[in-house]
Write a structure and sequence with these properties.
Helix content is 17%, strand content 33%. It is of the alpha+beta class. It has a single domain, classed as Immunoglobulin-like.
């Protein structure tokens, strides 16, 4: 019994050190990008209806040729007034849309199937659920 417990403890410690070494080998450059800011802020209620810019800021410079707005997974579809594009810093995606009053909007930015939001090195964005609600007027 003591031998089994000792062996299990030794294996657990070895696996912990192996996992720590693997994670420790990554750098910001090799990790996938993440969403750091959205406008409107995700989860906001009472966003003004009408023409607006959806702005999504990422943690890294992104490949300007790919977008994966997957949905809508909640409520209404964005009414596009233009095409999504990246700002000069390549970190912020801007999409001019028209929002309807009293609607919920929800889109995945990347998901298991669609992963076109990628950084310059080709790492796909960690999937992010972007949702908000417009005011009734």
């Amino acid at each position: 019994m003591k031998t089994t417990t000792l062996l299990n403890t030794a294996i657990s410690i070895a696996l912990f050190h192996l996992a720590a070494a693997t994670v420790g080998a990554q750098t910001i450059d090799t990790m996938p990008p993440v969403v750091v800011k959205t406008v409107p802020e995700a989860g906001t209620k009472n966003v003004p209806a009408g023409e607006t810019e959806i702005r999504i800021t990422f943690s890294k410079e992104m490949d300007p040729g790919g977008f994966s707005f997957v949905g809508p997974v909640l409520g209404a579809e964005f009414i596009s007034v233009g095409s999504p594009a990246f700002s000069a810093d390549q970190k912020t995606c801007v999409w001019k849309v028209k929002l309807e009053p009293g609607k919920s909007y929800g889109y995945w930015l990347n998901n298991a199937k669609f992963q076109n939001f990628r950084d310059k090195a080709g790492h796909p964005l960690v999937p992010y659920l972007f949702s908000f609600q417009t005011s009734k007027e």
